[in-house]
Amino acid sequence: MEEREMTQRFCDLFGDILLIVKDVEKGFFTLNTRLVKEGHEKFRGLLKSRLPYAEKVVEEKEKTGIQMKYVNLIIPFQTIALGLENLMDRMEVKLDANILFSEKATKEIKELFSLMESQMRDLKDYILTRNPHLLQLVGQDVEEMRSLIDEYTIVHQNRLIAGVCMPKASYLYIDITDSMKRVAKGLAEFSERV
Q1: Residue 10: CB partners within 8 Å, gap ≥ 6?
Q2: What share of the chain is helix, strand, coil (3-state, %, to 5)?
Q3: 70-116, pLDDT tens digit by residue?
Q4: DSSP assignments along 68-102, one per residue
Q5: Is the CB of residue 100 less than 8 Å from the CB of residue 193?
Q6: At the N or C end, where does the chain have fewer CB atoms within 10 A?
Q7: Is this structure's pTM higher than 0.85?
Q8: Using 50, 70 and 90 to split pLDDT, how confident is the model at 188?
Q9: How many Cα neighbours within 13 Å face the side chain of 12?
Q10: CA–CA gap between residue 141 and residue 187 (Å, rounded)
Q11: Residue 8 and residue 114: Cα distance in Å, rounded?
């Protein structure tokens, strides 16, 4: 494997993931369970299609420098994949159970989605161009994501205490935002290693 091949593999992968995330987001906010489930299945299929190649590189006894770099990128990518998997799973649960979020919670999740997609786009472009400004943006986005989620969590707890939010919705809201935080963290770690 050459550096260019590895770069293109990850660039294509994040491009595909970004399209899936956009479909899942659309399904979530339009309450279209089918669209979320289809996106979730596409995501699983995408990961499954890439697994044989990753396993082959990991199993090789003698690794080149590029192969070692690829292996080192697998760990933060797993963080991203697990975060997205949990995010989509929680969204399916919310839609299947017909649990409603407040207008404020919905607005907050939309804002977090926008930030997560921006971070993912910046990472994809950084992988391709190695533009240091994009690397800086990925780092700024993760800090902004953490800050917003921490702020929203405190406000959310107050809404729960006041009885504005129901416990079922509360659990899912917190799990969705935590998943987004995990994805943002994985994207930042990936950008530092690539």
Answers
A1: 73, 127, 194
A2: 90, 0, 10
A3: 999 999 999 999 999 999 999 999 999 999 998 999 999 999 999 99
A4: HHHHHHHHHHHHHHHHHHHHHHHHHHHHHTTPPPP
A5: no
A6: N
A7: yes
A8: very high
A9: 10
A10: 10
A11: 24
